[in-house]
C-alpha cells in the first residue's frame, strides 16, 4: 500500500471517487471483529464503513477515530494508521456536518471548481 504522497480527506461518498488512492477518513466505531482486524463504523456522512487493518488491535477502541490508508471499495477502507481521539465529556462533540462540508470544499478545490459548492 502506498503510504506517501497526497492523502485525500474524504467521507464515504468520496471513497468511490478516490479508490486505491491514499486518503484519510473519520469513522465512529460501532464494533470490532475478525480477531481485531476489522472495525465496523459510520462515516461522517452516516454511511456504514468497514475498516480493515493489517495488524490486529491491541486495545479496545470507541468513539471517533481517523484512519489513514485507502478506500478499496465504496464501503471498505484499508488502514495502515489509526489516530484515536481522547474521550472527554466536557469537550464539544465532533461536528460531522462541518467535516462533510470541509470534505466537499477540499474535493472541489482539487477539481479546480469551487463554484460547484452549495451551502
UniProtKB/TrEMBL annotation:
Chief location of this protein within or outside the cell: nucleus
Matching InterPro entries: NA-bd_OB-fold, Rfa2
Keyword field contains Nucleus: yes
Protein name: Uncharacterized protein
Keyword Nucleotidyltransferase: no
Molecular function as annotated in GO: damaged DNA binding; single-stranded DNA binding
GO biological process: base-excision repair; DNA replication; double-strand break repair via homologous recombination; mismatch repair; nucleotide-excision repair
UniProt lineage: Eukaryota, Metazoa, Ecdysozoa, Arthropoda, Hexapoda
Any one cellular-component term (Gene Ontology): DNA replication factor A complex
